Each structure stands twice: as C-alpha cells, then as structure tokens.
Amino acid sequence: MSSGFVGRLQTFVGLAGVVALCVSASLVTGINPLEYAGPALNAALDKMRGKLSEPVPRWSERVDGLPVAAVVTSSTVVVVLNGAVEARRLGDGGQAWTRVVDWATPAGEVVVAGRSKGGGFEVLDAANGAVRWQDPKAANAWAYEDMLLSVSCPGDREGCTLRARDTRTGAGRWRLRIPGAVQRLAGHPDLDEAVDRHGMLPPSYPGRAPRLVGALADRRVTVVDTRAGRAVGSLSEGANTRVAMLGDRVLGITARPRENGGCRYAARGWNPSGAEVWRHSGFDFGTVSGSGCEQRSDPVAAGGVIAAVRPDDRPVLVAVRSGGDRWTGRAGESLLATDGQVAIVRGANGRRLTAISALNGAELWNRTASRQATVAVTGNAVMINDSDAGEIVAVSPTSGAVLQRWKSQATILGVGFTGAVFGNGRTVGYARW
User: Fold this and answer.
1) Could you tell me the pTM of the whole model?
2) Which residue has the higher pLDDT, 233 or 42?
3) Torsion of CA 280, 285, 287, 293, to 10 degrees
4) Are residues 354 and 366 in contact, defined by beta-carbon separation less than 8 angstroms?
5) How far apart are CA 208 and CA 202, in angstroms?
6) Cα separation of 286 and 38, whole Å?
7) Is the pLDDT of residue 25 over 70?
8) What is the pLDDT, as a whole number, of residue 13?
C-alpha cells in the first residue's frame, strides 16, 4: 500500500473524528462548532484532494463557488462560477474582485454580467471589477470583444429593439426594430455551449462580431448586417430546420427523419445579398440532438471551417465561404476539435491523435492517447487532458513538441497565451508551460 494512500486514509479518519467530536459538542453545549471550523475543514478537504498538478501550478486558490469557465486577461484570471464571477490576480492568485450575478461573459478586458430576473446587465473592468457602463432595461445581451448586442422588448406586439454598442465604452452604433420577441441570437454561442463544445472556454471566445447575426423571434430569423445595422433578409426556422450565421455566410440546415431510421440532411449557404453560394446533401453538421431529427445546436465551426460527416461516414472540414472540402478523413475517424488553423482527428482505433492543417489538410504530427482523452485546440497550444493516464499535456499546434506535461486529474477551465487554468472542485490554479 502506497504511503500517499495511507496519508489520505489517515486524513479521512481524522476528519471523521473531528466531525463526530463536533456533533457531540453541539449536543452538549447547544453551540455549533462547525461555524468556527470552516477553515480547518476546507484545509482538510484540500489535503484529501491533493495537488492540482505536478509540477505545481504557479498558484492555486479556492474560489467562492463551482467554476464553470476561466479566461486569462492581461492582469487577472476571470473565473465564471455558478451564480457569481470573480477575478484572481495573474501574478499570485489573490482575489482582485468578486460579484454575485446570474450570468457572466468575459469579453477581452471586460466582463459582461447580469441577472435573469428583471434583466439588465453591467460591463465590468476585468482588472478591478469597476462598472464601466450598464443597461438596466435590456432583456438580453450578447457580447463580442468589439461589439455588444442587446435587445429591449417593451411588449410582444411592439416587437423588440436590437441595439449595438461598443463593448468597452458603451458608445452607440445602431438600432434596429425586430418583429416579435427575440429569443436567440444565431451566430453567438452561449458560454455554456462554448464550454460543452470545446471541453473548456476557448481563448478565442467570444471573438469579434461576425458580419452577420440572426435574431430569432416567433420561429423566424431576421438576418442582420452588423456593419450597417440593417436587416438583409429573413428565414423561417422550425424543429427540423436550423439557421446559423458563420462569418459572412447564412447557413440553412434541414434534417428530416427517414422511413428506415436516421436523418436526411441538406444544407445551403448564402452570402449577405441572399444569393446561394453552395449546397450539400447528406452532410451531417452535428446539429441534431433529438430522436426525431430535431435540431437544437449550431454546427461546430471556427476560423472559416465547419466540421461535418459525409454520407459515407468520413469526417470532413468544409470551407464556410465556398462550401469546398478543406480536408476529408477516413471512415471511422472523428474530428475532435479545431480553431480554424489546426484540427485534431481521432483515428478509428480510438487511440491515435493526428493534427492536420485546417487550411490545406496536410498532416502536421500525431501521438497516442486514451480513448477518453479530451482535446482543445488554441493558437498557442493543443491541450490534451487524458484522465485515464492521469496527465495533461500541452503541445505545439504545428509541430507537436511537448510544451509541458502535468500529472493531474484536474479539468481545464481555460487557456491563455502562456498557460492554462486548472480546476478541481472549488480549487483553481494557473499553470504555465
């Protein structure tokens, strides 16, 4: 039996004894000693969990809730929690500021945060938490690094006003009337959706505002040109039809049930003027999540490419603008992740990871990992979290050279230019490569 296991077992037995003693003291005196044992209890729990990684991160601290995602800014690590958001100093991990909110979206050097009940939002400085500007009346908001789109709906019959402002300063750019109550903004993945798709919050999120977005209201998507602030058309959307905005292209994807099972797919791409640029039949863009071929998700896309599966079960990267194939894999392979420059492909055997150029399909490097390993691609590192092997590896996106290897069972919450944010329970840490 290893000494590490014995130490953890002894810690557990000691903790159980402390709890029993606290219960007995509470029954005798009527005082709850656990109110005074919080720091000691937290320290014991941290010891049981062990270190975030080996080598140890630059710093590790307990945050005020369960972390959802993290972003590395120029001076802080912003951690989005369930019901709050807080920032830790990049140098030593000390708390810079914290705020109780229902939702939060980091956007460059600011954080957009608000409450679900009553609406409204504030734009906070990521360095010190100060309010730069706010809108207490907005029903919803979607932040990009350079533009914040918000919607106000005084009444369903009157429709809604979509408003664009500078994210950092709040300076107005344009307003547009949208018929109906706006429910979703096609072209903007929510933070939770971005985390689910990538396994962490990618450093490119939310990025700069695309040329086109789509305001969904009453099953109709109004296509909006974000540069001009005007509507350029509209498309209907239903359970089997998904309208997506990718850069300066509008995608219409349909998926209908086949009599013998499965779905019949079709997709078309239009430019801002409404002219059809390309179409594909049979390509599965990963938008279906229901047994009746209902579409509930946008396609996985980044940097001008979309991930899809052809009718012959071969994965493919499709160019958003032209609809042409950038790369086509073999049957049984699967595309795990891409940032639009590099894509990681899992082989049919489940253990071989191959990096390819998303620009021309050339193979860059390959390595092995367990079948359960998750991968996130950023411009600075490809992060491979292999829980079966108990390690996290950061490798160069272009050469595959190992930048750093950590022994760890932590999750990856976010990645910066020179390091990553790890999480385990309520403990987060910043590790550099």
Assistant:
1) 0.84
2) 233
3) 60
4) yes
5) 14
6) 46
7) no
8) 47
Q: For residue 50, give Cα distances in angstroms to 394, 421, 422, 423, 427.
A: 21, 17, 13, 12, 10
Cα separation, 168 vs 146, in Å, equals 7
Q: Find the range with the poorest average confidence among 155-159, 171-175, 273-277, 404-408.
A: 155-159
Phi-psi region at 26: left, alpha or beta (left = phi > 0; alpha = psi -120 to 50): alpha
Q: Which two tokens stand for residue 172?
A: 């107005």
Answer with the residue of higher pLDDT: 46 or 422. 422
pLDDT at residue 362 tops 90: yes
CA distance 382 to 400: 8
| Structure letter (DSSP) for residue 56 | P
- Cα–Cα distances in Å, from 357 out to 100, 109, 321, 336? 42, 30, 17, 14
- Radius of gyration of the chain, Cα coordinates, nearest whole angstrom: 24
How far is C-alpha 85 from the chain's CA centre? Answer: 15
| Strands 212-217 and 182-186, bridge-based pairing | antiparallel
Q: Look at residue 211 and tell me whether its pLDDT is greater than 50.
A: yes
Residue 386 backbone phi and psi in degrees, to 5: -110, 90
What element of type H or E holds 122?
Answer: strand 121-125
Q: Is the pLDDT assigned to residue 10 strictly greater than 70?
A: no
Q: Which residue has the higher pLDDT, 19 or 31?
A: 31
Contact 159, 153 (CB under 8 A): yes
Q: What is the mean pLDDT of the segment spanning 170-174?
A: 98
Q: Are 377 and 394 in contact (CB under 8 A)?
A: no
State the Cα–Cα distance between residues 293 and 97, nearest whole angstrom. Answer: 45
In the chain the domains, ranked by start, together with CATH numbers, are 1-50 (no CATH), 51-432 (2.130.10)
